[in-house]
Structure formats: C-alpha cells, structure tokens
Design a protein that fits this description.
This is Cuticle protein. GO terms for molecular function: structural constituent of cuticle. Pfam families: Chitin_bind_4 (PF00379). By secondary structure, the protein is mainly β. The protein has a domain of about 60 residues. It is built from one helix and five strands. It has a five-stranded antiparallel beta sheet, with no helix packed on it. β1 and β2 form a beta hairpin.
Length: about 170
C-alpha cells in the first residue's frame, strides 16, 4: 500500500512540475520572418584594485559636546602590518576610559585599558516641571464570588500516522 502511495505521489509531482504535459494544445501555424541582426553587447571589464603590499594610513577624530557632555576621541596609524592607536570615551559612570592598542603579526592584538574619574559638565536642556496631582478618592468594589466551575479534559485520541506532501500547483 505504501509503495502505491509513493508512486502516485511521484507521478503527481512530475505532472505538477510540467515534465509531463497535462493537456495537448494546438497553436496557429508559425510564420517565419526575416532574421534580425544581432550584436552582442560589449562585456564590461571589472576594475580590479591593485594589491598594496605595504598599506599605510592615519586618521583621527575628536568630539567634545558641551550641551550633552559627549566626549570621545580616536586616532590610529597603520604602517604595513603594524597598527597603533588609541581611543577614549566617557562612560555612563562618569569615568573616562582610554584604550591604547597595537596589532602586529608577531604579537597579535594587544590593548591596555585605563580608567580615570572625570567631572563632566552637562548643560541642562530643560528646567524640571513641578507636578502636583489632585488626590483621587478610591473605593474598592464589592467582591462577588461565583459558583465553582467543573472542568473535565476531553479524552485524548491518537490517530494513525499522517502523510505530508508539498502543495500541488497547476499552471
């Protein structure tokens, strides 16, 4: 029985995939026209960047925002496979974290972290608003107890195994 089901499922899948024609259709006779000139589009050449065996760069930035108190900076330089840099940021706990780092093929990545307290001056954006709510009178509603509800679970019925297949789409 299982073999017949598998064979039937395979036939339906093949028919749904369009490998076996589902119906025969007849088309009007084809008329041939003059050939159309065809020229292949030129192939675009990809720009390949030249490999730099000894890359070098240097960059830095610094942010000092007196309104929000945001304070951070970074600088980094690279010479070949050796990178040196440092960055600092003011953490939420009021300390300034400074990280000095180096990276090279021999020692890998190494970082030294220093923390120091900083007095950050943050300008007030808006003055606090005084708010006084009017007192609210609250009276609890009386508690009403309902009769107990009997609950009986429905019996569990175990069915036989189910067969699942992919949906069948017709073209």
């Amino acid at each position: 029985m299982a073999f017949k089901f598998i064979v039937l499922t395979c036939l339906v899948a093949v028919a749904s995939a369009g490998l076996v024609p589902a119906a025969v259709s007849y088309a009007a006779p084809a008329y041939h026209t003059a050939p159309v000139a065809y020229a292949a589009a030129p192939v675009a050449k990809l720009a390949v960047e030249e490999y730099d065996a000894h890359p070098q760069y240097s960059f830095a930035y610094d942010v000092q925002d007196g309104l929000t108190g945001d304070s951070k900076s970074q600088h980094e330089t690279r010479d070949g496979d050796v990178v040196h840099g440092s960055y600092s940021v003011v953490d939420p706990d009021g300390t300034k974290r400074t990280v000095d780092y180096t990276a090279d093929p021999h020692n890998g990545f190494n970082a030294v972290v220093n923390k120091e307290p900083v007095a950050v001056k943050v300008a007030k954006v808006a003055a606090p608003v005084a708010y006084h709510a009017a007192p609210v009178a609250y009276h609890a509603a009386p508690v009403v107890h309902a009769a107990p509800v009997a609950y009986h679970a429905a019996p569990v019925v175990h069915a036989g195994p189910l067969a699942y297949s992919a949906p069948i789409y017709h073209h």
